[in-house]
Every structure is written in structure tokens, then in C-alpha cells.
Automatic annotation (TrEMBL), chain A:
Gene3D superfamilies: P-loop containing nucleotide triphosphate hydrolases (3.40.50.300). GO terms for biological process: L-amino acid transport. Keywords: Amino-acid transport, ATP-binding, Nucleotide-binding, Transport. Belongs to the ABC transporter superfamily. Involved in beta-(1-->2)glucan export. Transmembrane domains (TMD) form a pore in the inner membrane and the ATP-binding domain (NBD) is responsible for energy generation. The lineage of its organism: Bacteria, Pseudomonadati, Pseudomonadota, Alphaproteobacteria, Hyphomicrobiales. It holds the Pfam family ABC_tran. InterPro entries: AAA+_ATPase, ABC_transporter-like_ATP-bd, ABC_transporter-like_CS, BCAA_Transport_ATP-bd_LivF, P-loop_NTPase. This is ABC transporter ATP-binding protein. It comes from the Bacteria. One of its GO terms (molecular function) is ATP binding. PROSITE patterns: ABC_TRANSPORTER_1, ABC_TRANSPORTER_2.
TrEMBL record, chain B:
It comes from the Bacteria. Pfam families: BPD_transp_2. GO terms for molecular function: branched-chain amino acid transmembrane transporter activity. This is ABC transporter permease. It comes from Bradyrhizobium yuanmingense.
TrEMBL record, chain C:
This is ABC transporter permease. It comes from the Bacteria. Its main location: membrane. One of its GO terms (cellular component) is plasma membrane. The keyword DNA repair does not apply. The lineage of its organism: Bacteria, Pseudomonadati, Pseudomonadota, Alphaproteobacteria, Hyphomicrobiales. It holds the Pfam family BPD_transp_2. It is found in: Cell membrane. One of its GO terms (molecular function) is transmembrane transporter activity. It is a multi-pass membrane protein. InterPro entries: ABC_transp_permease, BCAA_transport_permease.
Length: 237, 339, 292
């Protein structure tokens, strides 16, 4: 079976600085994979490289199709939703407009309307605030909004960059619970980059560990979580 | 974001950050250029000497703008106003009070510094497009202010004033043009050295900190208000000196010589030379003096269009101005040295 | 007191010109985050095109519509050909590009149609409006068209998908790309719309200031000032700003001694800047919190 996402020998550059040194990994359809590593290891760069937001070489394939020379927006149109670091909320627009923007490439009006209702069901707090300016929401609420916006695309693959950042632990548990639900019920494949390794490993099926732009460890999330040595050397707990 | 990401972050800062080192030429190149500037006038006609003088003068004015915009990040479309004040100060002092031309230069510098400093104060709250509008207003007001009736006795009103060109002192055997050229060259070199040192000094670092991130600079203890107004003052002072020299060189001041067109030309000179690159000021000055003439000789009726096309060509080839060419040259020389 | 009210009304009437231009200015600002100095010249050129069409026998409204379409396409073409390559260049370099465009358009118009003043027709006639000495039917028509344009733009941005996409692309371009919006084309579209709006402004202004290549110089500056006064993010603010600028200009000319025609512009600008010092984001602008 061809993996949904196949990354081969990915190298990425910020100007003259090389951030990824030949990264390779893959993600199967329906799975929930987490990418772990310390600050500056290259996790965010990996997600950005997949969406061609940073100069890169190497092979990135989605459903067998190469993504390399495509613009970010056309990659998104393949069905890849990316929730960036810092959420990237449209702060000047209302909550509802943010959700509408998530679906801006879709043509099925009725589907969009019903999806917005579904998002409100997943995230009731968004319904409460749906006419509020998104910038006035709290951090946790904005994260929910960002995830909901990504789901409005009806993506096949969702990329999340440090969704737990700056959020209270209870909020993170809530959020991760919802992510798990989305993965199982809506069959959305998920690639989540995280610094909070413990929680991420509880959520995911598969895990990869990045260090200075290379994959240094991979395996089932359960196995890595149970391996004290790996946890201590690479994940710091 | 990792440090690398932040360094190369996308998105436009209003004024590109030019590292301190890159703001000047190397010593070797500077000496070569200086030697050329000293020797060439001895072999060319008076008219060419006059053009070289104007090149230095406009170069000074662009340099002043470079300090203000490239150095402290404040965008100004009003330099023509300071240039005009400098020109008129010299003209009025020379023709109405018989002051020696050389003496009018420092007087002009001080007056224009004050003028710039005073303008800089209310402008503190403005930045970017708002500052551009304010300086634009200043530039458009100046010719009208110079035409005001109650000043006419001093300024000569719409007709302006004629300025007497000085002879070479001590009976030196050179033409007026040549003497004025060397005088201007001396002033230019002095100001250039001053500017280089200013930008390397603590004040210069303060300017650049403000340019790159005003909030961060202020939180580090930089007295933003002081340095911003200082930058305006210095820039106005140098522009005023250029104006004074210009008045003497052209032998004439009139309100309509100092319109917004001059301010826009100086701005273009800064961009073509490379924003924040002091030596580029003279390349930019050459562009704004010679290219319009070129355009007119190519097509009288379409001279504006030709100028526009040439300007586009320049900014496509070197979006960062002459500095880009200099960097390429440096890299080439480096490669040749290795082989 | 009567003089004051009269001058205010007259100012509102002339302000319609600035309001219309300010709309075009804000439109472009929304798309590209800069002000385009060549917009006035583009409006002027469009107006000349419509004039030329009428010289060739085309009716006023046909010429109007053809010019509108032409301006929309021309705006997109200019952006794609001349300014897309400069997207990665520094801001000041882009500004130099606008100046170059200004020179090219102004000079070309001068060559094609020369600098003599030409009469330009108005579809509204120039009789006194409702018997008033201060507002002609044309000026009333201008105000009407400007308000209609404003409503159309409001509807476009708030209630259409493409309007939403444009707002998103202008506000957070990276996030806009992440929802699949082609931000590059949104910029082109912004230019097209701004040029079309500018052409309407030109065709409305020409009957008043007479058609010649330099007709838009002062108007553009007042348009900028009006847009800035209103708050660059607000089309409504731009229109209000336009009317206010017209009023300022008139009052300054009437009440400040020694102010002839030439000083009206700098004084009006000075007044506007004083407002900005107090309210830096403009009257209706969103206060932008600077993130460090």
C-alpha cells in the first residue's frame, strides 16, 4: 500500500543555513503520527517544507503525487490542511468568517453550512463566540478555531504544529481528545509536531524523533513511550 | 520559530537593515576614488567641472537622506525644503549682508539643523506613510512660503536672487568653476567622513536600532525621541549645506527650483544608489543628474516615459541599488584572489 | 454663519472628488499594503481613453463601460507584468517603481493627447442642484455615485466569497495560502479593482477640473490624505475623509489670511497630520497593536 505521505531525503534551507539534512519518513492513511524533538531540531521546518513554504529539495509525495514545485495554495487544494505555529488565525475576522475561509476552496454550499454546524458541535465555545472577532478569543479557543478551520477543508491529511503551545494542560487534554476522535471517526490522517512528547505519544500510533534536521528514532508510539532510555536521551523525561 | 527562521523571516520591514560594516567602501577603494576626484578636473572643460560639482552637491543631499532613511529608518519626501532653506540662507547672507560665501556654509548647516530638529519633534508620532505625507506637505509648502509677499524684500519673491560666484582666493590661477569644485570637494569629504563616523558611533548604532525595531530599541534604553529628532536635524543640516553649495554653483535661487520634484529625485537617487549605503549616494546623484538628460536626448516628447523605463530597468536589474553591484564586485574580486 | 455653512457645503461638494479617489487608494492599500503614487495618472489615462472613444462617436455610457472594463484589465496587466517581479524587492524599491510608472503614464498621455485642456462631458448636467447655488447637479451626481460605489464595495467585501478571500489575503497572507487562496492573484485583482474605481473617479472629476495630463496631481494627494485621515483600512473612512478634506480645504482658503490657492494644499495636509498625531490610525482605522 502506498503511504499517504512519503517524504524522502528532504533538505530544507533558510537562506544559507541548512535546517533539514535528508529527512525521510512516511505516513499511512488513517494513522496519527507525531514528530518529536527539541527546540530547533527542525520539526516546524519539516511541516513548512511539506507545504513548500521554505526552500527545499528532495521528494515529498502525497498520494503518490509529487508536491515539490507546487505553490503552497495548490498543495492545500490536494487536501492537506496545515495548522501553523501560532495558529495563524485571521484575527480581524469573525469566528464564523474564519471557518468560512477554511472552506473557501470548496464549491458545495450546503456541505459547507452543515460542516460549520459540525464544528460548532465539536467545539461549542466557538458557537458561543461565532460573531466575535477571532483576535479576542483566548489562546485555547484560537487553537480550537485553527483546528476547526483546518477541518473545514475536509482534508485527507492534517498537519499540526505544536498545538499544545501556550495552552493550559486541561485544555491540551481536551484538544488532543478531539484530535483523536477526528482521526478515528472522520478518518483524517494526522501529522502532529509536538514538544510535549508525553501527551503526543499517548495520542499517536507512530512516532518519529528529529534531531538537528535528521530522523534519529522511529517506531510505534507505545514502544517509544515505554522505552525509558529513549525517553531520557531524546525526549527529556 | 528557530533562530535561523527569524533571521531570514519573510515580510517587509519598512527599511531594509543594512549591516554596519557594509555601509561604506573599503579604504583602498576610497583612496582611489578620492585620487580620481582630485586629478580629473585638471584635464576637463569648465562645464564638466561644473557638472562634477553638481554631482558632489546632489550626492551630499542623497547622503543626508541615506542617514535619515537608511540609517534611522525615517521616510522623508521633504528634503527639498531643507535644501531650499540652505540655498536661501546663503543667497540672502551673501547678497544682503555681504557675508563671505565660505562662512555661509556653517551658518546654513546650523540653521538647517535647527529647522530639521524642530520638524522632527512633532513628526515623532508619525512613521511610514504618515511621515511621508507630512514631509510631502513640507516640500510642497516650501516654494509657496518662499513666494510670500511679506518676505519678498529678502527672498526676491518669485524672481528669486542672483548669487555672485566667488573667485579663487589668494589669486590662485584657477577658474571660478575649478575653485568652487575643490571647495565643494573639501566640504563633501569632510561631511562624508563625519557621516561614516557618525554611523559607526554610538549614535549611529542607536539610529540603526531604531530603524530595525523601534520598540525593542526603546526597551533597551535607547532614547528614541532624542535620536529620531537628531537624525532629522543632522540630515537637514547636511542637506542645507548641499543647498548652499548649490546656490553658489548655480549662481541663482528661486522658489520654483525647489519643488517636490527635487525631493522625489533625491529619493530616487537614494534607492538607485542603495538605501543606507553611503558611497551609493554619489552613484544615485549621477543617476538623477544624467539619466533625465539621456532620456530627453533619446526622445524629446517622451522624455518622461523613457526616464521611467530606464528607472524600471535599473530597479529590475538591481533592486537593492548600486550596493548590489558593489557586493557582486567584491565577490568577484574575492573569487579571483582565490585563483 | 451663513458663509461658514456655505463653505462647508461647498467643501462637501468638492470633497466628493477626493472621496472617490480615496476609495481607489484604500482599495489598493488593502491589496498591497502600500500606496501607489501612479494611481492618479492611471485614472487620468483611463479618462482620456473614454474621451477618445467619445471623440470617435461612442456614446457616453458605452464609453464609460468600455473604459471601466479596460481599466480593470489594464490594472491587472500592469501588476502582473511590472510589479509581480518586484514582490521580493524592498518596499522603497517598489515605491521607486510607482514613480517610474507615474512618469511613463504622464509622459505618454502628454504625447498622445497633448497638454491642452479639453472639455469633458457629465451625464448629470451642470444646473444648480435643487435650486442651490452651491451644489450643481453634477456634484450631487458625484456624491451619489461615490456613495453607491462605497455600498457596492461594502457588499462585495462582506458578503461575497471572493471579497472574503481578498480580505484574508490582505490581512494574513500566509494563513490565506494555507486555506488554498492564491494570494498572488488576489493582489492582481486588487489592482484591477483599484484601477477601475480610479477610472470612475477620473471620469467624474474631469468635468470639474478639465481634462489634461496633469489634472490628477493635486487630487491624488488629497485622495491619499483623505484615505489616511479616514484610516487606511476603512472604505467608509476614506469617503468620510474625502468630504472632510474638501471642507478643510475650503475653510482654510476662506478663513486663514494670506492663504491663496497655492498654500491650500500644504495647510490641508497640515490639518490632516494634526489629526493623525492625535489619532494615529485615522478616524475609522483599526488601531494596530505593534507586536515586538
Amino acid at each position: 500500500m502506498t503511504p499517504l505521505l512519503n517524504v524522502k531525503d528532504l533538505r530544507a534551507y533558510y537562506g544559507q543555513v541548512q535546517a533539514l539534512h535528508g529527512l525521510s519518513f512516511s505516513l499511512n492513511e488513517g494513522s496519527l503520527v507525531t514528530l518529536l524533538g527539541a527546540n530547533g531540531a527542525g520539526k516546524t521546518t519539516t511541516l513548512r517544507a511539506i507545504c513548500n513554504m521554505v526552500r527545499s529539495t528532495g521528494g515529498v509525495e502525497f498520494e503518490g503525487k509529487p508536491l515539490n514545485n507546487r505553490s503552497t495554495e495548490s498543495i492545500v487544494r490536494f487536501g492537506i490542511a496545515h495548522v501553523p505555529q501560532g495558529r495563524g488565525t485571521f484575527t480581524n475576522m469573525t469566528v464564523e468568517e474564519n471557518l468560512q475561509l477554511g472552506a473557501i476552496t470548496r464549491k458545495d454550499r450546503a456541505g459547507i453550512v452543515s460542516d460549520i454546524e459540525r464544528m460548532y458541535a465539536h467545539f461549542p465555545v466557538l458557537k458561543q463566540r461565532h460573531t466575535q472577532q477571532a483576535g479576542t478569543l483566548s489562546g485555547g479557543e484560537q487553537q480550537m478555531l485553527a483546528v476547526a478551520r483546518a477541518l473545514m477543508l475536509r482534508p485527507r491529511l492534517m498537519l499540526l504544529d505544536e498545538p499544545s503551545f501556550g495552552l493550559a494542560p486541561l485544555v491540551v487534554r481536551d484538544l488532543f481528545g478531539i484530535l483523536g476522535k477526528i482521526n478515528r471517526e472522520d478518518k483524517v490522517s494526522i501529522l502532529v509536531v509536538e514538544q510535549n512528547a508525553q501527551l503526543a505519544l499517548e495520542l499517536a500510533d507512530q512516532a518519529y524523533v528529529i534531531e538537528t534536521g535528521r530522523i534519529v528514532m522511529s517506531g510505534k508510539a507505545k514502544d517509544i513511550a515505554n522505552n525509558e532510555e529513549i525517553r531520557k536521551s531524546y525526549l527529556g523525561y | 520559530m528557530s533562530a535561523a527562521e527569524e533571521v531570514v523571516a519573510e515580510g517587509h520591514e519598512a527599511v531594509e537593515a543594512v549591516p554596519k560594516r557594509a555601509m561604506t567602501l573599503g579604504t583602498g577603494t576610497s583612496l582611489v576614488v578620492l585620487a580620481a576626484l582630485l586629478i580629473v578636473p585638471m584635464f576637463v572643460k569648465n562645464f564638466i567641472i561644473f557638472q562634477m560639482t553638481m554631482l558632489l552637491i546632489y550626492g551630499l543631499a542623497v547622503l543626508a537622506l541615506n542617514i535619515l532613511t537608511g540609517g534611522s529608518g525615517q521616510f522623508s519626501l521633504g528634503q527639498s525644503a531643507f535644501y531650499a532653506v540652505g540655498a536661501y540662507v546663503s543667497a540672502v547672507l551673501m547678497e544682503h549682508a555681504n557675508v563671505n560665501y565660505a562662512l555661509t556654509i556653517p551658518i546654513s548647516a546650523v540653521i538647517c539643523f535647527g529647522f530639521g530638529y524642530l520638524f522632527g519633534k512633532p513628526a515623532l508620532r508619525l512613521s511610514g506613510i504618515y511621515l511621508a505625507l507630512a514631509t510631502f506637505a513640507l516640500a510642497t509648502a516650501m516654494p509657496q512660503l518662499l513666494k510670500l509677499n511679506f518676505l519678498e524684500h529678502w527672498t526676491g519673491g518669485v524672481q528669486g536672487l542672483v548669487v555672485t560666484k566667488p573667485d579663487a582666493p589668494f589669486g590662485l590661477p584657477m577658474s571660478q568653476d575649478m575653485w568652487l569644485y575643490y571647495f565643494t570637494l573639501a566640504v563633501t569629504v569632510a561631511i562624508y567622513i563625519f557621516s561614516v563616523n557618525l554611523l559607526r558611533s554610538r549614535s549611529g548604532r542607536a539610529f540603526m536600532a531604531i530603524r530595525d525595531n523601534e520598540i525593542a530599541a526603546s526597551s533597551m534604553g535607547v532614547n528614541v525621541a532624542l535620536y529620531k529628532t537628531l537624525a532629522f536635524g543632522v540630515s537637514a543640516g547636511i542637506t542645507g549645506v548641499a543647498g548652499s553649495l548649490g546656490a553658489i554653483a548655480v549662481q541663482f535661487v528661486a522658489p520654483d527650483s525647489y519643488t517636490i520634484t527635487l525631493a522625489i529625485s533625491l529619493f530616487l537617487g537614494m534607492v538607485v544608489g542603495g538605501v543606507g549605503w553611503l558611497p551609493g549616494s554619489f552613484v544615485g546623484a549621477a543617476f538623477i543628474i544624467f539619466v533625465p538628460n539621456m532620456a530627453e536626448s533619446i526622445s524629446k516628447g517622451l522624455s518622461g516615459a523613457v526616464f521611467g523605463v530606464l528607472l524600471f530597468l535599473v530597479i529590475y536589474l538591481v533592486p537593492h541599488g548600486a550596493r548590489q553591484v558593489a557586493i557582486l564586485g567584491q565577490q568577484l574580486v574575492g573569487k579571483l584572489r582565490k585563483n | 454663519m451663513e458663509l461658514f455653512t456655505n463653505q462647508v457645503l461647498a467643501g462637501i461638494a468638492t470633497g466628493a472628488i477626493y472621496a472617490c479617489m480615496a476609495l481607489a487608494v484604500v482599495m489598493i492599500y488593502q491589496a498591497i499594503d502600500h500606496l501607489n503614487f501612479a494611481q492618479g495618472e492611471m485614472a487620468m489615462f483611463s479618462t482620456f481613453i473614454s474621451w477618445q472613444l467619445m471623440q470617435w462617436g461612442v456614446s457616453y455610457w458605452a464609453a464609460f463601460l468600455i473604459t471601466l472594463a479596460f481599466s480593470f484589465v489594464a490594472g491587472i496587466a500592469i501588476e502582473r507584468i511590472l510589479f509581480k517581479p518586484l514582490v521580493k524587492a524592498p518596499v522603497l524599491t517598489n515605491v521607486a517603481g510607482f514613480i517610474a510608472l507615474f512618469a511613463i503614464i504622464n509622459s505618454s498621455a502628454g504625447l498622445i493627447w497633448d497638454f491642452t485642456i479639453k472639455q469633458y462631458p457629465t451625464p448629470f448636467g451642470s444646473a444648480p442642484f435643487l435650486g442651490s447655488q452651491l451644489i450643481s447637479t453634477h456634484q450631487a451626481g458625484m456624491i451619489g455615485v461615490t456613495v453607491a460605489l462605497l455600498l457596492a464595495l461594502y457588499f462585495f467585501f462582506q458578503y461575497t466569497r471572493i471579497g472574503l478571500a481578498m480580505r484574508a489575503a490582505a490581512s494574513v497572507p500566509e494563513s490565506a495560502r494555507l486555506v488554498g487562496i492564491n494570494t498572488s492573484w488576489m493582489i492582481a485583482l486588487g489592482w484591477g479593482m483599484a484601477t477601475a474605481i480610479g477610472s470612475i473617479a477620473g471620469m467624474l472629476i474631469a468635468p470639474v477640473v478639465f481634462l489634461e495630463p496633469n489634472m490628477m496631481g493635486g487630487v491624488l494627494i488629497y485622495g491619499f490624505a483623505a484615505a489616511v485621515l479616514g484610516g487606511l483600512s476603512s472604505p467608509f473612512g476614506a469617503v468620510v475623509g474625502g468630504f472632510l478634506v474638501g471642507v478643510f480645504e475650503n475653510l482654510a482658503g476662506t478663513y486663514i489670511p494670506g492663504v491663496g490657492n497655492e498654500l491650500k494644499l500644504p495647510i490641508a495636509l497640515a490639518l490632516i497630520i494634526s489629526v493623525l498625531v492625535v489619532k494615529p490610525a485615522g478616524l475609522f482605522g483599526r488601531h494596530i497593536v505593534k507586536r515586538v
